[in-house]
């Protein structure tokens, strides 16, 4: 979501003459787009600001955006008084105005910073104020369709920093997707903190995510659709069926479970059980047996016993994931979890995380090995580490390194998978639109 937001900030500032540069040296404006989800990400803000500071001259404006800006606006201005602007994720459409205010501001009371703070949750949606065209579009693009959350899991800051659940209208999403495809996108990943809670309006009717994707799949040239992040409570059958019936919808789902223990799920206020989660996976596999699954896990939530943790390991063994993200519980100020009195010691969290990650890595390696010898369509969406090397994605979201003609960049090619590693696979192109033409 932050990658999407950063891109949109660049789009808003383009008409003002701003262009992206590679680093802070000589820049007129530096925007640090931040994440508040765990303490580690949060702390990074101050060390990154410390690195940017030496480049600041009279002309440079430093802005801090994103969820740390939202949660700790005044604190940032106090701890780093050379920051000129602090904004939240819902006000970045007002950046031009904030920059103008910063330029006008003579207020240097708090040091060299210009003291512009905008962390409101405005009534108007920022999406209505963003320019239609994106300025940087690659073969694989992001599109935010939903934002915010009303679920209030006891560990999570999102409902406080991103605000209430909001779904964009169908028509606006369709137009943005059409525009992205016109600018070269072949794959679009629909984004939302609870993307499958999507309930946008079209013709006065509410549409869910499955129906939205059916509609987007009619855009000529849009080859692949993905979405993240989904919540187990919002898994409609319509969405599961979309994986069977809409060829553009890829056979991959990221569905966070957090824990395999019902006691912990309850303490987390997830409002779903272990068996509900397993039931979804079972049903999903009846519609799309080859679907690859990913998840998020938190270890060491307050009260988690060795037995609770083993329930998580068992769930992982039962499902079999092709990839996953796992984290140590990070107490966040203002969330109910942070004041629970049965916090798990840090060394126990570290040890559990290592065990969980060992199992998840084994599964990921096994999944990748299982694709050796298979031929799969791969969308080449990034340049590799060496000349002639490209990086692409299989339908199952595996990263594939492959040697290819530069003209194949942005194309989908058939690749036979040859070697498997924990985080990627390698292979060779077996057919391409340029076969017989490569000598040209
Ligand atoms: N809406 C999604 C997840 C959004 S946050 C869902 O409900 O599943 C992304 C991930 O960050 C979460 O799935 C969770 O695993 C992790 N996370 C959130 N808060 C955390 C915290 N306080 N400590 C550790 N991990 C956390
Ligand atoms: Fe956070 Fe997701 Fe829970 Fe919402 S549903 S509070 S975003 S973890």
The level of helicity is 25-40%
Q: What sort of overall outline do the alpha carbons produce when their principal axes are compared?
A: globular
Taking Cα atoms only, what radius of gyration do you get, to the nearest Å?
A: 23 Å
Q: What's the number of extended β-strand segments?
A: 19
| C-alpha termini separation | 41 Å
Low-pLDDT residue intervals, each spanning 5 or more residues: 436-440
Q: Which superfamily, in CATH terms, is the homologous superfamily of the largest domain?
A: tm_1862 like domain
CATH topology label of the largest domain: pyruvate-formate lyase- activating enzyme
What is the element layout, followed by pairings?
Layout: H1 2-13, E1 29-34, H2 39-52, E2 61-65, H3 66-79, E3 85-87, H4 95-104, E4 116-118, E5 140-144, E6 146-147, H5 158-161, E7 166-167, H6 170-182, E8 187-191, E9 200-202, E10 205-207, H7 209-216, E11 224-228, H8 237-245, E12 252-254, H9 262-267, H10 274-287, E13 292-299, H11 306-319, E14 323-328, H12 346-370, E15 375-383, E16 389-393, E17 399-403, E18 412-420, E19 425-431
Parallel strand pairs: 1-2, 2-3, 3-4, 5-8, 8-11, 12-13, 13-14, 17-19
Antiparallel strand pairs: 6-7, 9-10, 15-16, 15-18, 16-17, 18-19
The structure holds S-adenosyl-L-homocysteine and iron/sulfur cluster.
């Amino acid at each position: 979501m932050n990658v999407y937001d950063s891109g949109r900030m660049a789009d808003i500032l383009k008409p003002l003459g701003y262009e992206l540069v590679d680093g802070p040296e000589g820049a007129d404006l530096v925007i640090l787009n931040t994440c508040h989800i765990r303490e580690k990400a949060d702390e990074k803000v101050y060390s990154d600001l410390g690195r940017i500071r030496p480049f600041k001259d009279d002309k440079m404006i430093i802005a801090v955006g994103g969820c740390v800006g939202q949660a700790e606006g005044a604190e940032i201005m106090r701890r780093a008084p050379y920051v000129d602007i602090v904004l939240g994720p819902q006000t970045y459409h007002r950046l031009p105005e904030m920059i103008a205010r910063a330029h006008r501001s003579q207020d240097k009371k708090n040091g060299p910073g210009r003291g512009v703070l905008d962390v409101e949750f405005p009534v108007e949606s920022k999406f209505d104020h963003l320019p239609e065209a994106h300025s940087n579009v690659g073969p694989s693009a992001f599109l935010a369709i939903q934002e915010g959350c009303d679920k209030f899991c006891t560990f999570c800051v999102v409902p406080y920093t991103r605000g209430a659940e909001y779904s964009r209208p169908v028509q606006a999403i369709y137009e943005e997707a059409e525009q992205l495809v016109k600018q070269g996108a072949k794959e679009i990943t629909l984004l939302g903190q609870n993307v499958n809670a999507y309930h946008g309006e079209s013709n006065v009717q509410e549409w869910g995510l499955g129906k939205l994707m059916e509609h987007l799949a009619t855009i000529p040239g849009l080859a692949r659709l993905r979405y993240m992040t989904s919540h187990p409570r919002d898994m409609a059958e319509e969405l599961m069926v979309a994986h069977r019936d809409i060829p553009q919808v890829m056979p991959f789902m990221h569905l966070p479970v957090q824990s395999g223990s019902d006691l912990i799920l309850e303490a987390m206020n997830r409002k779903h059980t272990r068996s509900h989660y397993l039931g979804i996976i079972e049903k999903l596999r009846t519609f799309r047996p080859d679907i690859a699954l990913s998840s998020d896990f938190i270890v060491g939530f307050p009260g988690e016993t060795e037995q609770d943790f083993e329930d998580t390991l068992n769930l992982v063994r039962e499902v079999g994931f092709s990839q996953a993200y796992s984290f140590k519980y990070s107490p966040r100020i203002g969330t109910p979890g942070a004041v629970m009195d049965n916090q798990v010691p840090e060394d126990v969290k570290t040890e559990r995380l290592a065990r969980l990650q060992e199992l998840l890595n084994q599964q990921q390696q096994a999944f990748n090995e299982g694709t050796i010898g298979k031929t799969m369509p791969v969308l080449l969406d990034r340049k590799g580490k060496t000349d002639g090397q490209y990086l692409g994605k299989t339908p199952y979201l595996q990263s594939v390194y492959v040697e290819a003609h530069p003209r194949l960049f942005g194309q989908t090619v058939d690749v036979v998978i040859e070697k498997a590693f924990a985080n990627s696979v390698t292979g060779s192109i077996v057919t391409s639109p340029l076969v017989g033409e490569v000598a040209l």
